[in-house]
From TrEMBL:
Designated name of the protein: Large ribosomal subunit protein uL23
InterPro entries: Nucleotide-bd_a/b_plait_sf, Ribosomal_uL23-like, Ribosomal_uL23/eL15/eS24_sf
UniProt keyword annotation of Ribosomal protein present: yes
PANTHER family per record: 60S RIBOSOMAL PROTEIN L23A
Organism name: Pseudohaliea rubra DSM 19751
Chain's role: One of the early assembly proteins it binds 23S rRNA. One of the proteins that surrounds the polypeptide exit tunnel on the outside of the ribosome. Forms the main docking site for trigger factor binding to the ribosome.
Amino acid sequence: MNPERVFQVLVGPHVSEKAAIVADAANQYVFKVAVDATKPEIKKAVEQLFKVKVENVTTMKVKGKMKRNRYGFSTKPTWKKAYVSVQPGQDIDFTTAD
């Protein structure tokens, strides 16, 4: 995979309370990814960037919310998140990426 595409596929980690619970319980990590990213691309990008072995990738599109402002209504952008399962005994450290 092209090194530039790795950083286009993975936008960043999604940090939330639910993501922390899933990381502890099921050894899964949650990432914000590009809307056009596929599961094999996400798997390769995580394996290359964090040097771990990925078991499974589950994706989900999050529909943008409708917000009201002084000009009427606007819609926040739709984005995609990926739940990435890594092999037992491995973990991802978001502070360092080789």
